[in-house]
Amino acid sequence: MSVEPADTALCFRLEGVAADMWRCVLEHGTLEGAVAALLEYYEVDPATLRLDLAAFVAELENNGLLIYR
Hints:
By secondary structure, this protein is an all-alpha fold. It contains three helices and no strands. The mean pLDDT is 89.
């Protein structure tokens, strides 16, 4: 069976911090919950982490991988 271009889908692979962010967002359901969990693993300024996580979630939403409610 041949695959036509319209039958293909994007594939995303997350590694390192991105994978941890994804896991925490899914597990905790809120940005603040995910931030709190990530702060247990990473030594980082909480404000910086919030900004980075919000940007990451926005990118996931823009790519149709996450619907934030």
